[in-house]
Amino acid sequence: MIGKIKYNLLRKVLSDSATKRVIVSQYHSALSMMKEAIVKCSDELWNSDRYKNRYWHICYHALFYADLYLSDDEYSFSPWTRHRKEYQFLGEVPYPPYHQPHIEEFYSKTEILEYLKNIINSLESRIAKTNLDGTSGFFWLPFDKLELQVYNIRHIQHHTAQLVERLRQENNVSVEWIGCGDKLE
After folding, report:
1. For range 123-132, the mean pLDDT
2. Nearest partner of 106 among 29, 46, 181, judged by Cα
């Protein structure tokens, strides 16, 4: 209850435009770190089968959901033009008929970086038109659009952390922490 009161107080103190500037900045930070993790990944690690989920697949999963949750709702979402059916799932398809997705070919770094750039290029306009007080737009996420943005950024950062740890273990490479971000080039 106290958390909800603090949350509502914070929403009243911050204007929508200030809140949206912070959201955009944090998306840019999270996506910048993911971009660096993609660029620094060796070709060998990119599609290595040493892990349950391949490096490129974690990248695609995180970007797919970032893109999805930046949409108004699941019905207005238009997948990336290079989307392949069920490639967004890291495990079993979460609805009937439950099954493992059939992954035949991997996405290249160039393709993943293109997708990341597409998301970044649409980010500011998508956030600008978002009603932060509206519902998430996704029946499986029972909270408002503001919390959806925090959830989405946390999801990107969660998977970026997986990628960074893998880079450290396999290639002794690190990724710089980015606390706030400008638009990526």
Report:
1. 96
2. 46
d(CA 150, CA 154): 6
Residue type, 19: T
Separation of alpha carbons 113 and 63, rounded Å = 10
In this predicted structure, what is the pLDDT of residue 179? 86
Handedness of CA 25, 68, 130, 118 (dihedral sign): positive
Q: Is 106 left (phi over 0), alpha (psi -120 to 50) or beta?
A: beta
Coil, helix or strand at residue 144: strand
Return the exposure string of 81-117: e unless at least 16 CB atoms fall within 10 Å of the residue's CB, then b.
eeeeeebbeeeeeeeeeeeebeeeebbebeebbebbe
Residue 14 has pLDDT above 70, yes or no: no
Tens digit of each residue's pLDDT (9 = 90 or more) over 82-98: 999 999 999 998 988 89
Percent of the chain at pLDDT > 90 equals 79
Using the Cα atoms of residue 120, residue 115, residue 112 and residue 98 in order, give the sign of their dihedral: positive
Phi, psi at residue 135, to the nearest 5°? Answer: -70, 160
The contacts of residue 183 (CB under 8 Å, 6+ apart) are 28, 120, 124
